[in-house]
Please model this.
Amino acid sequence: MLNANRPDKPNINDQPIKNKPNINEVIKKTPSKFKPINETICRKWIANPTIDPETQKPITEERKKALGYSCKWIGLYHFNPTIHHIAINDQMRSHEDRYVIERFNILYKTHSNTSVKVKYHLFAVIDGHNGSSTCDYIKRNLYQIIRKIMETKYEIQAAQDIRAILNSALRQLRTEIDDNIKDNSGAVMCALFSCQNKFVFGWIGDVRGVVYGERNKKIVKMASTTDHTFQNDMPRLKQERAVLKKDPHGTMRLHNLNIPRAFGDAEMTNIAGFSRRFELSQVFTYEPRMGRMYIAIGSDGMWNIMANKINYVKVMNNIILKYKMDQVSLTKFIREIRQRSNENDDITLVAITISL
Model:
């Protein structure tokens, strides 16, 4: 566990958590007739705001105000959701897929001089090519780079800016790979970084992340990252006058590479159209009223078996509802649809459930 309360940096963490109300101000503005309500009841109300969690009847306006004040008292607008995950790494051909799963906590002081434990999660799927040196380097160092960056974030506001942190980490990772990996291996990846109930994607290449939500006992797609494929990057490739050729199988390639963006690939440094530029999503938030939220990060082999006349949402319904995020059942399911689609690539899937 990292501890941000450094003795050589006095009074650096005495600011309130960003957007969290000052408790003393809340108390002053709270009518005396409204007494604090315990956290368990508040959480039940946030999950179902139309029902009184104690009486199980439709909630009244006065009761709603009382619960609202209590949520501010205990700071429930910044909370740590329950995060459950599984990982499947089904290697078939090249054995160049990797994944990263890390959890860590940092202690910060709040304005009331109490300690707050802030929880972070890091998930990543890495798909290597032309060797495993680059994907192994990412697996070993991505978490360490983020951890070192976090050690410099003394103020809690900066520590909660997860988009800026992930951006800095991926920039540093890209530089280190260029400096340390001299063979022709490369890797594409998609990472998910979270702080409490806030999440952000960072990705390069054709490893994808998708976000699903629970609506009326069905799974619906909410958002996804984009593939850095030739089709999606075509305007940029034309502008940079990249030379694209089809291989004997009809696949569009750039100097023997079937994707136009990746980390590593030292031999591609001077090839027009090749890029090591990654992308970041906007920060998205899990709110208790959303029900459960599901995130899947998969290598291209995973999405290829889905794209072969298989409906994405149907597959995610199978993964989440039918197989209940069970690793053994899911591995069997993935191998079954792999056979139906004749996909021989390695398949790596990290599936995440987020709930109150």
